[in-house]
Structures are given as structure tokens and as C-alpha cells.
Amino acid sequence: MSNGRYVDGYWCEAVARSVDLADTWRLSAQRTPSPEAALAWLREQALRLADALGHAPPFGTTADVFRDWAADHAYQRIQLAALASGQPISANACGPDRIHGQGRDIEVLYSLSARPIHRDATTRHLLRTL
What we know:
41% of the residues lie in helices and 38% in strands. It is α+β, with helices and mostly antiparallel strands and 130 residues long. A four-stranded antiparallel sheet has the order 2-1-4-3. The longest helix is centred in the middle third of the chain and has 19 residues, at 35-53. The protein starts with a strand and ends with a helix. The mean pLDDT is 87.
């Protein structure tokens, strides 16, 4: 990596955000050693989230976005190349969800993302000497 930086793995997250409630919930997170492992983790999380959301409307449409993304290997090759070149990637879907205590459906953005973990070369050198 240029400027004395290198990639020290990839940070992956599954989050849900509600603008209405001004809140974010981390559903899952994982550090992976490679872009391929990051993409595999994202696929697994996409299918888990789709299963949790179910098939019935109104949640089924949001779930279908993640099922379709998990099956789109051509697009994932593009995302893999982007991630390997240092760019963050994501798969996102928005839809209604029932939040406990609200008594109504709230718009929720579900986001699966992966990004490189950048370190500088001095950190790498220090870690090797410890």
C-alpha cells in the first residue's frame, strides 16, 4: 500500500439503522484476513438476515434484496475487486420493521459492509518487534 500504509485484514459489519428513531444496531461484526473471506462472511450474513426477515410482506421485499445479492456472483466479483483494491463495499436494503415498544412500523436500513483495515508501516514494525 502507498504512503507507508498496508491492509491488516478486513472489517465486516451487519447493521440496522432507523432514521425515525435516530438509532443504529450492530447485528454482527467480524474481522477477516482476506477480501475473499470478507465477501463469504457478507454472503452468509445476507442469507441469515433474509431468513430472519422472512418471506411475507412487508418484510419479504427487504429480504429478497439480500437473497438476490447473495446469489449475484457476477456483481460480487466486481465488489471483490473493489475491496481488494482498497475500496469499501456494501449491500443495503430499506424497509419497514416493527420495533418493540413503538407500536408502529418504522423504516429501517439494513446494511452489510466490508472495508480494509489500514495500518501504517510503523505500527506493523512495532507489532513485529513486540
